[in-house]
Amino acid sequence: MPELQPRFRGVCLNAGNCIVCGLCTKACPNNVLSYETVQKPGSKKKLLSSYTIDMQLRMFANLCVEACKSSALYFNPKILSSVP
Question: Which residue in 11, 13, 10 sits closest to 72, CA to CA?
Fold first, then answer.
């Protein structure tokens, strides 16, 4: 496990809050965010089926968190604590 600086801010997703607006992907200057949706049966509403953040290319601008209207993206300094 790498040692992280105390100021490290990882980004986490609360998928239950995501309204699939796409503002996070539009705000990202490196295009490291991607998601897939599915159509909710009997509705025009879309549901989030998968969400990916490419941590290798991320520049930690955190513009995605600022752009998220529904607070689905948030900072978590312990994001890598579960990685072996």
Answer: 13
